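Worked Example 4.2. Consider the chain below.
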Amino acid sequence: MNNKIYHLSSCSTCVKILGCLTDKSGIELINIKEKNITPEDLDYAAKMLGSYEQLFSRRALKFRSMGLHEKVLTEKDYRKLILGEYTFLKRPVSFINGKVFAGNTKDSVEALKQAVNG
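Applying the procedure from the previous section yields the following structure tokens:
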């Protein structure tokens, strides 16, 4: 698995996180608005993190507008929603040296910085 980071270039949080990474050479930066996460990468990330739900963003505007907050979603639902609409992918999602980091929590960002910056 190549080192890559799925992010949203218009997201100030993603920009800030990417700015904290000292050496991005050898890391493919993928803007999810232009190219959504691949099914293979999504499946790998879900396997590494334990579920598709771990990769799903409930903060997406479409989450409420589609009435998803009123439904009980299955793992199959999470996978389908993420692959169908980039906004449902928690971001950034990073694949670094075989490890996967998802989201912008303090712990996730610190682990990502440690993996990239050493």
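The CA atoms of residues 61 and 87 lie 8 Å apart. The mean pLDDT is 96. Compare this with Example 4.1 before moving on.
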